[in-house]
Amino acid sequence: MRARLKWGLIIAIALLGFSTGTWAVLTCGTSTGASAHNPLLYLSSADNAHACKVGSCDPSYSLYVWCEDSAGNAKFEFKPAGGAGTVALLNLSSNANAHAEFASLANYPEKISFNAVDWTTGLATGNITIEEISPSQTCTTGFVPVVRLSSPTNAHLGTSAPPSPGAYDHIICAQFSAGSAT
Q1: Is the pLDDT at 7 greater than 70, yes or no?
Q2: Which of 3, 61, 78, 90 is the most buried (most CB within 10 A)?
Q3: pLDDT of 90
Q4: pLDDT confidence of 12, banded at 50, 70, 90?
Q5: Please, which residues bridge with residue 30 across strands?
Q6: Which of 69, 170, 99 has its CA nearest to residue 77?
Q7: Could you give the CA distance from residue 153 to residue 106 in angstroms, rounded to a whole number?
Q8: Helix (H) or strand (E) holding 90
């Protein structure tokens, strides 16, 4: 009886793992100019920056934030809020030359959201989880930093990690789970 219960538990855990998707390794960074990466958000500079929504920037905003699935199964795209697999990254005070805030706040009208899209089918895939980190903390294991803010709201943005001069310690982190989008 005990052996059957043990194998039943192992099979149940295995099925749960397959049905909920598997964690993929997410990589996020910044680039300038033409690249294979899809922009999620543009910045005026690497630190002490204002932000610009994709499609609303003047040419001086050449630095952009991107994320990708290192397994190559999905690309990440800027999307209007809502839809399968779409998650809010942060809010902006306007479309361009904007200050930012954590997505969990509601002071700013422009929502910056993104989703994962299967390279082959073009359909939403997987699930993205966002966490907002306050000073003296780091991203939870399995999460990676996407962008840093000077404060939770009315913030400038940055990409440098402390203890670099001018680094910001309010961090937006993300994790990606491969599988069906919800």
Answers
A1: no
A2: 90
A3: 93
A4: very low
A5: 65
A6: 69
A7: 9
A8: strand 87-92
CB neighbours of residue 16 within 10 Å: 9
Structure tokens at 8: 């039943």
Q: For residue 18, what are the CA distances in angstroms to 8, 12, 23?
A: 15, 10, 11
Concatenated DSSP letters for 8-54? HHHHHHHHHHHHH-EEE-EEEEEEESS-SSPPSEEESSSSSB-EE-T
For 180, counting Cβ atoms within 10 Å of its Cβ (0-12 exposed, 13-18 middle, 19+ buried), the class is middle
With 70 as the cut, is the pLDDT of residue 40 above it? Answer: yes
Query: How far apart are the C-alpha atoms of 60 and 109, rounded to whole Å?
Result: 23
| pLDDT digits 0-9 by tens, 124-134 | 777 889 999 98
Residue 126 tokens read as: 């997987």
Residue type, 12: A
CA atoms of 55 and 36, how far apart (whole Å): 17
Contact 5, 20 (CB under 8 A): no
Could you identify the residue written with the tokens 């500079």? 45
Of 69, 72, 66, nearest to 24 (Cα)?
Answer: 69
Contact (CB, 8 A) for 26 and 174: yes
Backbone angles phi, psi at 14, to 5 degrees: -60, -45
Residue 168: which of 49, 87, 60 has the closest Cα?
Answer: 49
Res. 44: pLDDT tops 60:
yes
